[in-house]
Amino acid sequence: MTQPSPQLSRLEHPIEAVIIGASGGIGQAMLRALLNNPAVEHIHAFTRKRPSHLSQLAMEHSQRLSLHSINLSDEAGIAAAMAQLESVSPNLVLITSGLLYTETRMPEKSWRQLDEDYFHQQMQINALAPALLAKHLIPKMPKDRPALFAALSARVGSIGDNRLGGWYSYRASKAALNMLLKCTAIEAKRRWPQLVVTGLHPGTVDTSLSAPFQARVPEGKLFTPDYCAESLLKVLDGLTPEDSGQVFAWDGQPITP
């Protein structure tokens, strides 16, 4: 039986949500959790690709779910996608998109494997795209009531917690994301005092993103996407404006900068 989703009690109901990267493993789980939450009135889901089952889901929930296309590789694509929300004022934004490896490049084990194009791809998708989404989305968010803007980060983006090295591009992009979220939180607080801007570390989730790296995951630490989504929504449910600018793990613990 599907468990009820956290009610996001800090947000005024009904909730209008935006999900970026809704076709990924965590994005789809977030989408399911929000559809299972009666407090969520409408979801605007953005994807680069549109798998058939997602289109079917949109048909089944046509009154509550709208699908949109987005290209995160440059600001023009992001701006064009956000223009589709002309009359929308979301009080919940979830960015679940991300890049760890490509068809030709895996995370670096040494500086000898650094590659300019791969590094730029990581920074574009994992750091710059969420920052540009904040630029185009936060002005649409309400100023007079609580709101949440969250992007998936990663513990490996922590400088203080880095004891193994490697994964240069991915670590750097997530560290950059964390700094961009911090800057965004500081600036947004001036005009959106009830907005929480945060990064979320989902742990290791059983998706295509983590598939090549699951062999060394300790027992009990490989989470299902649905468990991850419920855990992260529970974390969001407990955040206040004083937490804005920080990064939190799936269990609610803050991540060391």
From TrEMBL:
One Pfam family from the record: adh_short
InterPro entries reported for this sequence: Fungal_SecMetab_SDRs, NAD(P)-bd_dom_sf, SDR_fam
GO CC term, one of those recorded: cytoplasm
Coiled coil: none
SUPFAM superfamilies xrefs: NAD(P)-binding Rossmann-fold domains (SSF51735)
Gene Ontology molecular function terms on file: oxidoreductase activity
Transmembrane segments: none
Protein name listed in UniProt: NAD(P)-dependent dehydrogenase, short-chain alcohol dehydrogenase family
